[in-house]
Protein 1
Amino acid sequence: MPKDGGIGASSKRREDVRFLTGVGNYTDDIDIHGQAHVFFLRSDVAHGTLNAVDTSAAEAMPGVVKVFTGADFEGVGSIPCGWQVTDKHGEVMQEPAHPVLAQGKVRHVGEPIAAVVAETLEQARDAAETINVDIAELPAVVDMKAALADGAPKVHDDLTSNLCYDWGFVEENKDAVNKAFEEAAHVTSLELVNNRLVANPMEPRVAVGDYSRGTDEHTLFTTSQNPHVIRLLMGAFVLGIPEHKLRVVAPDVGGGFGTKIFHYQEEAFVTFAAKACNRPVKWTSSRTEAFMSDAHGRDHVTKIELALDTDNNFTALRTDTHANMGAYLSTFAPSVPTWLHGTLMAGNYKTPLIYVNVKAVFTNTVPVDAYRGAGRPEATFQLERVVDKAARELGVDPIALRRQNFITEFPYATPVAVEYDTGDYHATMDKLEEMIDLSGFEARRKASEANGKLRGVGVNCYIEACGIAPSNLVGQLGARAGLYESATVRVNATGGLVVMTGSHSHGQGHETSFAQVVAEMIGIDENMVEIVHGDTSKVPMGMGTYGSRSIAVGGSAMVRATEKIINKAKKIASHLLEASESDIELKDGAFSVAGTDKSVAWGDVTLAAYVPHNYPLEDIEPGLEETAFYDPSNFTYPSGAYACEVEVDPDTGKVTIESFAAADDFGNIINPMIVTGQVHGGLAQGIGQALLENCAYDDNGQLLSGSYMDYAMPRADDLPMFDVDHSCQTPCTHNPLGVKGCGEAGAIGSPPAVVNAVVDALRSAGKDVTHIDMPLSPDRVWAAMQ
Amino acid sequence: MAQVSMTVNGKAASGEVEGRTLLSSFLRDQLKLTGTHVGCDTSQCGACVVHVDGVAVKSCTMLAAEADGAEVATIEGQANADGSLNVIQQAFQDHHGLQCGFCTPGMVMSAAALLKDNPKPSETEVREYLEGNICRCTGYHNIIKAIMAASGQDVGAIAAE
């Protein structure tokens, strides 16, 4: 029987009501009395020397308040990078300055050169058109390998080259890995591209800056996944504003998918300009601006090699990746191709020897950073593609080859420095096989062929590392932040609770699922629990939401704070019941004395905490509010097995997804309805990457896919109904809820299934196709068949 | 500047607009009906769909002046008279047809227009009708379910989840 509340119930989302009736509070819905609007004049060339920016005409235009250029920010800090990677020689990465407005050079199309603040957005835009920018255009570098060639134009003149870092992992294993390849019975190799994507949350970014001269306090309203992180990065490193004078609010946020983690120039600009202009300043991104200013995702070029012995056991894995950083280092960019990618290269397999080489490269393109999955989709795609190719080369069943090499004993220490706590990869594969009716596939293929279509099936596994992350570990790896989470639970006198969490919900439904957890622990109705997030003035501290960390880290902090509440409430109850504290039990919202019928209700205890007439004042303070910080001891490791069936039209190359099945192991689950929805969304993004989406530049660094007219977003008629199961559950062993996280799985696990299926379809027609680079658009598929 | 008057969600509304002012801007900035969202600048995403004289319109693609004298319906006017969710809105909540909520107003308004013209659409018809409404969160699965459920059809049959 489904539960009707608490942990495990598909509680309907309380936040839906405001979203469905048009009364949500997104950042663009915020207008502050007296606010001015800013329009950014952005570079239309990819690389050039900025000789002069003449704003005199703009300053005289109607409604203009003030015009800013890079010169106004010379005393202001650089937009910081939050992760410093050390390369295989022990040298730290090259880290260029990143100005709020361009200084001296422009380095990508879309880089802001000047900003016009005016009474209205239209006036600001009109005035920006009169700014005269003198740019001496320079040759641009777009292709990563060309950027590393001798004599290539340098994106940053003060760096030695366009190489950010050359990372080897695990460097000490390199010789042993090479030796294993020399001794291998079979080697499968594959060169592939993980296509550049644009996250495209439906809400474009918005930032509103406000300043109170009376109190010297700054407020920034922004579309962020982590307002406290923005407060730290912008306050400490860019503008020099202490935390107690800077409030950052991220209200209802319309999707993030990673690209709203990062600290952007526009946030620093509106905060700075609000003080400089002495009035609120608002920026609303257009979608066109979003394409050239939101951090992009993926963009790896990889060669992967898999060594096998005579029994088809994987003996070694070797990869060589070029990872695009774009023109500047976005907040977490250096960590994505390294610690979020190299550490996952074992996948679900007991390959004993692995070596990963990653060269991160500066190019004249928009910065690249984490996008749903962040490093883990890139790892999964190359690994699952090369395993599939190996199965074909060896003439063995791809599922059997995977099963033969599965890790089966846990905990399992991989050769790439992580320890999987739990998992059961055979169980998810068993479940998947049950879902997809493989035995009926040949009949379905024949039916497709009778209709003139080719049919293919593709299967793959995935593993990801979520619940980011142990602070002491990531500190050693170069993170310039802790990755704990905090929660404060405030119990009111009449028994209702307010939970202030550092996690941020921008579609994930935390207001519902987090309340389910606390309500379950106390045994009260979910509606007695309110979740507050997204405001640094209300929530003491927070590291935010990304990396599928909210329930695993934020939820654990909330559990710890609630445990403290319960412990104190038991002390109060023991006083009221005149019983030993050790005999007090909490069940269904009432405290009772074990073995007796004496009890006191939750509300009576909370009232006593605030009206302490009959209260153990000599032992404990009045009030009922507790805070906990939770720092995880390990990552969590969700895993699963996915399958895709496609039809390919041999005349046009058009691929149609006929079915998609996902069997996931997320450990324990709080709200199955929300978890299923998260998987659906991830699958759509992964299938979008595989079939539709591609962020393209020409050789001059011009962005070719700068709007929804050119960038193919998945639409309702591109996708099937999904078959999703998460009944295989191996609970996480090291967090109090036993949860693993589910937000990114769909995007990580789905691209290889699609490509494996299309290759299978083409080969069924006798085509000697081993790989097609994503997106598998009709022209690419058709060309591969010729 | 020109004076425009229209009926919005059954109430008279008027204001001064520039010739270039879009209906979406008029609704959001002047009438403060911020439930209508703007998610792109090429009339692709559909977050701004409203009804003008009973027809679904992308309000970022219509000038406010063109709506002079029209009957306009937005997401703010969709709930039942007692404030409860209407059938479509309730189906979206029941079937988890929204996550971040940003595309949702346009989805609900498009769904209402679809069901008015086609009271029992097939899954394929719903998908084709929503081609002009982009959602990045849900993968559409639960939106399709919600709309079919709102039309009174048994959605248990169309998918396992």
Protein 2
Amino acid sequence: MTKCLILSMEEWAEKKNKNKIVVEKINLKIGEFTCVEPISLINTFNAAVLGSWLDSSEITIETIPFEGKCSKCNRLYFPKKENGYKSPCCNFNLEEIISGRELKIASIDFKEK
Amino acid sequence: MHLPISDKIELNILHQNSHQAEKNKVKFNNYNLLCLNIMSSPGAGKTRLLEITLEDLSKKFHSAVLEGDMTTNLDAARLEKLNIPVVPITTGRACHLDANMVSGGLKLLEKKINPDLLDILLVENVGNLVCPAEFEIGEHFKIALLSITEGEDKPLKYPIMFREADLILITKVDLLPHLNFDINELKSNIASTNPKADVIEISSITKSGFDLWQDWISKKILKFKNN
């Protein structure tokens, strides 16, 4: 995932003039229902970019809640592992996921040198 | 130095992989080749499943395998004995196949056989219940194996994998009489995580469930070919 993030940043920087910018913050949106542990992503990113053009950049992560929709009564709810992800209102299985699968670079804060 | 600029890009971190996966899928479609991504934890029985499956499947359909493995070609060597085209993909330190690796594997496969002659490509992913679930490879269907020795709770503990799967194979069911294992609880946990997935119980020892699994594959191939 860290590699994918860095590749995405490289792709973004190609459209700018990489040598003339300093990336300050990479603002991510990471859903709770993904395979990404935010602190691990930050640690591995910081280690991977040491000495590179992204060395001085900082990652911020906005966690997007895992939210489902009950297929029986249409209520939104926050699925919990302890409850088998079922809806608390009707005890229905998780069919529709509203949010929580996000793996996004929301924005990049940078300065021109 | 100028004032900071905020570039709001809202870009999926995995978009490069997704883009390559789409390109792979277009290739598979052009070859009229159905691709299945087989995933599980290490030791759930993926390779043995493929050995038994391909013995029969190869009589009806032209098959090939991309065999993902972190460090060895041991699994690929087992499958090569079936006289079908097998391409090993050694991922090194990576714990999953990604779309680029599969693209590379497909290029090597093209050197072995004209994929137009194939009906189905089985991709055995690296044994891991986490990362393979997030990385599309261009497959048409995802198959997740779960052996009963892993415990009933795994669909809840690794929900992304079981949520993403189109078919879940519960393996090693021949061990049921010897274990304190509640298969109904497992099925309930699967349904909680992914109510839409097909589920088949299977044993590579007794071969129970293989008729259903083979039937599932055959129907998918025929439907794919007719579309």
Protein 3
Amino acid sequence: MVSGKSDYDVKLPFFGLPKLWPYVRGYRGWILFNVVCATLASLIDSVYPLFNRYAINHFAALHTTDTLPQFIALFVAIVLIQIILNFVSTYFCGKVEMEVDRDLRNLSFEHLQRMSFSYYNQNNVGYIHARVISDTGKIGEMIAWRMLDTVWMGSYLFFIIVVMLRIDLQLALYVLTVVPAAVLLITLFQRRLVVLNRRIREINGRITGNFNEGITGARSIKALVIEDRINDGFTAETANMERTSVRTARISALFTAAVTTMSSLTLAIVMYKGGWMSLEGIMEIGTLSVFMNYAINMIQPIQGLVMTISAMIGIQVNIERFTRLVETEPGVTDTPEVTEKYGDIFHARTENWEELKGDIVFDDVTFQYPDGTEPVLEHFSLNVPYGTNVAIVGETGAGKSTLVNLVCRFYEPTEGRILLDGRDLRERSQLWLHRNIGYVLQTPHLFSGTVRDNLRYGSPDATDEEIREALRLVSAEEVLAKMPEGLDSEVGEDGGLLSTGEKQLFSFARAILADPRILILDEATASVDTLTEKKIQNAIDQVIQGRTSFVIAHRLSTIVNADVILLVHDGKIMEQGKHADLMRRKGMYYALYMRQYEDMLVDEVK
Amino acid sequence: MTQKTAFESRTSLILYFLEGSKKYFAMGILMTSLVSLVDFINPKIISYTVDTVLGTEPSSLPDRINAWLEGYGGPAFLRTHLLYIAAAVVLLGLTGALFRFGSQLFNVTGAEKLVKRMRDALFGHLLYLPYAWYAENHTGDIIQRSTSDVETVKMFLSEQLTSLFRTVLMLVLAVGFMLSINVSLTIVSCAFIPIIVGYSFFFHRHIGSTFEVADEEEARLSSITQENLTGVRVVRAFGREKEESIRFRAQNDKYTEMWIRLMKLLSAFWCTGDFFMNMQLLSVLALGSWLCAADRLTIGNFIAFLAYNSMLIWPVRSLGRVISGLSRAGVSIDRIRFIMNAPVEEDAPDALEDVPAGDIVFDHVSFRYREDGPWILEDISLTIKEGSTVGILGATGYGKTTLAALIDRMYELPPENGTITIGGTDIRDFKRSSLRRAVGFVLQEPYLFSRTLKENLLIAADDPDESSLAECVSTAALEETIQDFPEGYGTFVGERGVTLSGGQKQRTAIAQTLMKHSPVVIFDDALSAVDAATDAKIRAALKKNLNNTTKIFISHRLTTLMDADEIFVIQQGRIAEHGSHEQLLQQDGIYRRIYSLQSAQEAEW
């Protein structure tokens, strides 16, 4: 897992924009278009006070209404242009934002489909999920809105400065003396606020964590009678939150006060100098009013620009994480020759795919997990002819999945090779292999959708008849019969509307329906009721007929008939043989079996 | 700590939450009013300067101020001393800045105090809710209510309400000042207000549901991603990467299009708003110019009026959104009220503090979780002798845990369903905290807190001392595990720390409970993930070190229970048989069947 703290300190050249460029190039036309629109819009915004000036200097000062119709017509025309401009620029800006988001999301999602399992083991789902959903969103927002804001504010500032300089050079220069001071002041405040706001977010995260702990740990808290203690810890955290927030508020309030004072100062300069100029007859009243208007409105875009810069600094971390994700090489890749012949995951060339029989040979395999410190397999050889049932047993967390991971080519051996029907696994594509494998997980995973969608997951063309046949084979017809809409019933997110046992049965049926040559079963440890357990056991016996199969077993009673049993301890294969041999040896397998046997007996008494 | 009032209405809950922060909000509002007032004086200075100082018009300021100014030389003096006017502007600016500072600070302080009070109240309330409540409510939902709903209510009280107030105040002040300048201009200016507010209100009300739909589409996209990531093995094993990508793309497109459509609506809304605003400005400009031309308005006043007008326009534009957002807060308050109104565990005022030593007796105890549910326990009568070791044997899901949970009153036993006594006193007469302190309970799936191992071990200890900790750790066979961690006792565990195995967690929980030094300890399948050898080691240590403690072991593993003084076999919620290991072997019952089956099996090999 990547620690959250150091992530904030990412510093990239030019806010990481060059790194991002290859991914957003396609939008350069639209981005340019938005820049032009924003510039024009800000130009018009900076022109409005000139209408005030004309009204005052001409109509009010000269006591005439001669050009009023033209005045109104011009005003309306400008307003209409501006409205169209604003509409076009905000709409297209939003469109660019959403489309950049969409493309970055697609890119990262598709890249994740190729990413090796070691990546998934090193990063938890929440972390990866945030990369796909939130990083991309922040980047899109920056590309579109921050860009628009920066351009708008920058050019607005530029235009009003130009207008002021044009109208009256001297007064304009007086006003502009405020700008450097304002920039400096705002930058200092902003920097301090960014740090404090980050701290607030961290405390906030801890408070949410506390709620989580108080709620999921409720049973333990009550049993230990530590409600008061936990509560004290919580109130200390919320007090910390209040303190930090109020401190931050003090600074940000001071910030606001400073900014408004800046505006007043500018206004005072204009009134003092401009007033004098108008008394001297050098400046008209309307012009003075324009200056006053600009003086009040000048500080805001400066503030906006500084805030945008600090937002861009904040977004570097998202850019860094995103580019790191899409630039990480998948650990297991097919060679160009293999891809040439068999195709890749998005363009399979099924016409070149061979039939698979299912003879597997581990040939002097040594394997170490990419994040591991020592090999878990050393010079391991095993011959698994077609139709063999291999059982892998051991304590929870002993590393029973290793062999299965290698057979599925989720990982590749560090040394040695695995032969499938006499050929190295690496000589054929991953997709070809996976389409020939059926995998039933320990914690059955279903996707939201209907029962039919889920069962057809591995064989999209299966007919309802075939689906029902598969369900019958695993004795799950009753489960289906209970469901109100039959195959069209929704299973809910992650199969949430079904019980674990039901999910287990469906995932069996799903695997069978794909008619795989190699079957991998990771048995359920979750307590399913005896009846369901019996059904699952029967299903297993049915399904492994005529296929090469690997069963990762937690209940030894289910695998006594396996052709070969491998006992794994601390990641290594300690014992190997048939049930009777292993029992006679009175080693680890024997001990494990005896312990579970007791449990089983007790349960049988129910 | 806990508070006893049930909140019958939204208002009562809001008022309860506002306690302690009300005065800050009041001060914030006062300051905000002062800010507005100061802001409104500025244009007056400008108009006075333009008309009377720079021009020749008579002053439009109140007479009293004119008189005061005349005392210093009036406009003539100021004409040669413009710096004074600039100074007045800066001074006013500083005063305004001071009030702004105050208003923001008071408002945020109020908001933070409010949030603290809400969170503390919620968390405090949650902690003391009965365990049964947790079984009925989803964790994710409770957390949602405690975090985002709290945030919504905070926004409502500290921002939306205050901004509503500020806007109305601004409106009243601006209209007042504007009226003092020119009535017909004010009418033209204000004529647009209902249009702008109404338009914005209806738009937000209409678009609110579209936002919800967009949120749902996002949630769907998010869960497709989530499913793909958690099911990555299934996806790979079935070679369905392409189809998954197509599915993701389809939803991604749908979501994107939804938002682009929303953006179109929003852009149209903003632009139409701009149009109204500019039309209003144009009307004011045109009428003002005409009035000036007709000598019915001075230039200075015209400038001032334009300034008031521009101050008015933004708050008015946001008013519609604020009003339409109000209904959302109501829903959140109700969701929080749901938690705050759930009754907490409450002890009778005369509840007993001290739990005496003595036998634990179940007298015709029956129990079911719901009124209409099936009976979990039926007519259980048993006696657990003080200081003895008792085993409870039974299959998974057949009431063993419920039986134990009744002893420390995790579930309340209704009076008509029998009684449980300790030392002759009904456990319902004790204070719950005293009872639970006297009865230690080790769970099968214990929860470790996000702290160091040591803090976890000491979390329930009253007076933690090192020797006692060492003893408990040794009894729970945890020493080696701790030594194996590079950071030993300082190892951070729990949600954000290192992951302990099931057995390590269980042993930590045992040591944790032993640190309570309770006279009764229940081990609820607390050794299920521990291997057989360690299981035996822990039981031996418990026997030796906790000689006088009443120990209750719940298990479906025979060896764990074999050396208990008395074993109760629970079958379908009833006691099927009981006695010592030897006695049970004499009877021709379940226990013997299990035992002999096992021996026979062993002899076979």
Protein 4
Amino acid sequence: MADLARVPERRAIFTETKTLHALAAPIETSGTLFWRRPDRLEKITFPPHPERLALAGTRLSLALGDQPPRDLDLASAPPVAGLIEAIRATLAGDLPALERHYSVGLEGDRAAWRLTLVPSDPEVARFLRTARIEGSGATPRRVTFAETNGDESDMRITPLP
Amino acid sequence: MNAARLRLLAVFLLAAILAAFALARAHLSADIADFLPQGESEGARFMLDQVRRGPAASLLLFGIEGASRADLAATSRDFAARLRASHLFRFVQNGASLGGGEEQAFLFENRYPLSPATRPEAFTEDALHADFEALLAALASSAAPLASRFGLADPTATFPALLALWAGPSRVREIGGVWFAPERDRALLIARTDASGVDLAAQRVVAETIAAAFAGSRHGSARLLTGGPAVFALAAERAIRGDAETISVFSGLLVLAILALWLRNPLALVAVLIPVVLGMAAALALTTLVFGRVHALTFGFGMTMLGVSLDYPVLWIGHRRPGEAAAATSARIGRTLAVTVAGAASGLAGMGVSAFPGLSELGLFAASGVVAAAFATRLVLAPLVVGAAIAPAEREAPRWLDALEGLRRHRAWTIAPLALALVSLALAPPTLSRDLAELSPVSPAAGDLDGELRAELGAPEVSTLAWVDGRDAETVLEREEALMPRLDALAARGKFASADLAARLLPSARTQAARRLALPPAEELARRITRASAGLGFRDDAFAPFLADAAAARDGKPLTPEAITPPLLASRIEPLLFRHDGRWYGIIAPSGLAAPADFSAIFEDLPHGHVLDIGAEMSALVARYTGQAWRWLALGAVCAVLALIAGFGSLRPLPRVLAPLFGAVVVTLAMLGALGIRLSLFHIVALPLMAGIGLDYALFFARRQQSGDERARTFRTLILCHVMTLATFGLLAFCQTPLLRGIGLTVVIGVVSAMVFSFLIAGRTPADQIRT
């Protein structure tokens, strides 16, 4: 965690596989991630599912395709807030923030670690079963979510210099 | 001698205890609505009452500004949380988020009958196909958790359409999850107190809670702006109370100082107070008996008016010769004093017949207090004064009094100022104020702020209100629905921004049934879903929740007002749809009203539609009461003249006494007109008060005074009375409260001119005095 907390800014590319209970086949997306201390996060997804997600504080803006962006406050959308907070607090190396919302389990060593997050807030727990974040050193490599309705997502992250 | 003094002190104490007891039993009411007119028709009365005491009166509007957006949003969140935690509020809303899960779950479950998006065309194969494609895009995005959770059960977006309806005002922006004004950095909140808006004691607690909550949640340099009827009521009360307290303390001390200086006898000072204190006790008791309570305003103004009765003991003591028995003093001035009191009391009693609730109370209070003080002077004070041997020493009339009274030879000249006043009155007659707001002690800036917050929040206007009624809730809702197309058309033409009404949130059972029928039967819907989703990659059972919810909604029962149980939702419906005396009422509250006449026109030809222009209604009422005021003024004047005739037993002394009063009234009205002051009801109330005081002067100067000592006594005593009156009412003229200022100014101008006219016209020339 201390290693993570020392990094002021990150850039990465990602590939995400979503397995949704409603869909026969998984959905594959890829794009770039940009993060800057303390609370900025930007996720840009390439076509065929173009999207731009920007987060500043608790304010989330989401633009699908060429539609105008929609604003969302995390406080009013617990399912999204649960996922976003898990990623952002991990990137920030902010263990206290993680522990406010989740019971945190840590396995492995510095070279290969794995965080398992189980939501403690009942509002979030209604949607999210567990979040897992794996990484080595100061770099997260993989984020997976398992939701209560059987939906799962698996995001693999490759840092950019 | 000592026993007599002790007796006097004991009587004073007893009187004070009596007054304190009467005050304790008087149920002083601070509810301003009790003091105001009640409305012309039954309906207007009921709705005015709704406006004053109903949910609209307990609405509070907040703006937070003067800091960065992040600080404002954080302040808004913390402030709202603290207000909610106080449990003093029905609801506190600072953003679109509709409370906890209970509200959301209720609306989601009942989305099909409640949402305007439930139409047959939303469930065709083509419409469903388009919805499914959009859903697929959402599932591929970061919003997948939301889309998967709600979208599969509600692909036609019926729920978001419903949520938008309930979220309320549309003009606000949302930043950081909280409402912001559309054109500036100002966070907005809206709240309703549990306590009625006119319950000032409870609203004071609310105001303290708000101040503490804001102090505890303030981020950066944020500052709080507040609006709402209760805020006004509190500010008005504070201003009036502040004025009344300051004035009563200052004028009380001033009058006491003047008396002490003049009488140079502490015992005499105590004696002078006895009748006033007893008069106050009697006035409180009688008013409580008749009206069941005494309004705080009545008490405040009534006590000012009772200040007049301080004259009676002063006149009595001032005219008493050393060693004289009560009967002997009475033989000289008893009749004059009785006529004075009868005249003043009948003038004030005229007010008692006013239909303006506050005024009839005030009239009764003042008249009964004056009469009681007069009786107390003759029956209680007179023997005590004899026992305690209080009387000014005998002195010959000083020379300057002769010179001054010599001026009476030129009294014909008083016609000059009178003529001037009449001309001025003809050229610049005082205009009548018809606006109750002009009487308000609250600054216009506070009203502007309230209007601004209201407009930014899209909160209903306080100026215009419409309603429909019916025998049950369903009838009312159906009548509202029949109106909605006309309302929407008018809103589309920019005549007003929006109208809050129950039928938009809770459709009638008939409309709910129609919406249910818009949903295809289960097998048909299943067939359409299969065809519409073909080739999109959904699993076969992906839309099972959609199918189940639609089928359940099709067979559901209509929702009634009672079925809306989640607190936040119930608090939106309750003020808009309610039962009163076995009838149901549906309120239609417009916001951003640009064309009131067009809005009102909608309701004109409706048998069950009503519209109330509150401003116009109040102006009409005030105009009616002002018109009425002249009538009760005339009645009071006639009663006073009859009392004078009865007291004198002849018509002969009338011109001598009435001429100065007439002159004083004319000069007062002319002065007010020339000063450009608009006459309100309260100026008019002050006229009989001023005339009552003037009557003192005229009657006492008009007495035949057979010795120099007697002339000097009358002159000295009247001047003392005059100075005391000026001290009291002169201070009133410096008040913030227009109402108090009006009374003060009128009385000061009136009594000064009454003094001059009485001295010159009513008083006798030296030749006349000698010719007994």
